[in-house]
Design a protein that fits this description.
With about 450 residues, the chain is an alpha/beta fold. Helices cover about 40% and strands about 20% of the residues. Helix 2 runs antiparallel to helix 5 and helix 4 (about 90-105) runs antiparallel to helix 5 (about 110-130). The chain binds aspartic acid.
Length: about 450
Amino acid sequence: MKVVKFGGSSVASAGQFKKVASIVTSDVNRKFVVVSAPGKRSKDDIKMTDMLIGLAQSISTGEDYQTQLTQILDRYEEIALGLELPTTIIADIRAQLEKTISAYQNSPRLLDNLKASGEDNNARLMAHYLQHLGHRATYMNPKHAGILVSDEPGNAQVLPETYDNLSQLRNMEGIIVIPGFFGYTIGGELVTFPRGGSDITGSIVAAGVTADLYENFTDVDSIYCVNPNIVQNPQDIKELTYREMRELSYAGFSVFHDEALQPVYHAGIPVCVKNTNNPDAPGTLILSTREHSKQPVVGIASDKGFCTVYVSKYMMNREIGFGRKLLQILEDECISYEHTPSGIDNLSIILRSNQLNGEVESRVLDRIRTELEVDDISIEHNQAIIMVVGEGMTSTIGIASKATTAFMKANVNIDMINQGSSEVSMMFGVKECDLNNAVQALYNVYFN
Ligand code: ASP
């Protein structure tokens, strides 16, 4: 039995709905269908979720929102008309949205309730369409499915009892269509996952119903081994492990939500990333293990927007509690750090730059300087991180030397190397302006 999830671009128009229906009904094992809200139909289009966020903002600030509401309904209407569904469905969606607006107009829950309506109405439409084609299909609200989450609006975390609840659905007849992106608190309030969170719902459902496979349909044939905006026509990845996917999606691979891997990883359910527009392409399979002797490196990920705080103090290695006190200063400012490579008298802390506005930055540096009495402290901005990822990393001789040769050939200075803590990745820090050259050079040594 399979759980299939369709991302926003796969359900953005009537034409895409038809492709989805044909994918779902071509395989009797595709029993649970999770859908996103309508995504972009073209590059300049607006995602339904963004339209709904705009609507919520206008309502909260007391602005006139009728035009926005009409645009939202028009998009659903276009889909319904293109699928030749009765127009009563649009009247139902309008009534549903108006009910949500009047119930939550003055409540901090308005935003989550409106955002979730994007997937909710799309799931209703999908179930109607499958029924219209003569299939047995049921729309199932996450509340009825038992998807229970923490009360963190826009950042819900699944609660463990969800999995037992979902396991009850295994024996239901027909196709079950579930909207992605949200769940309910134990008290019955709707709360959404982070953006892109329909992947998370799909993964939770796959783990709950113990599916044999979680198929994640998107708009690319497979996951590429490197960002195609940096390297032209890169190789695709046929198979990779959960650990490899986790490391790649951390540093810029956005094809699959990084939080979405956890439920299927724990349940050991394989994931296949496939293309709605080319469903016969094999896609990329994510599994617990893979044979890596022929392909020790699976991908190269990279991301910008980091900064490094360099701290040095003579005899730092002997000073008990130094690291704790330093990290406490970050904790006091609610700053999370990414990596802390260290030497005997030096420690570097790599952070996402967007956490430091000018004021926070000078306060943190001052506190480290005075409270820890360091000899030297400095910060460097505009840093990029490159991760070379592969299960064969620790057991294959010469991987690191290939990388350093590539950097040398590309004339790129390595500001930081971090290898050892992760068994499946090697990390390099470079200046943002050197990123593309470095990634291209690494791709050449590992994949060309
Ligand atoms: N519609 C939501 C978003 O745009 C969730 C998703 O598509 O996965 O973030």
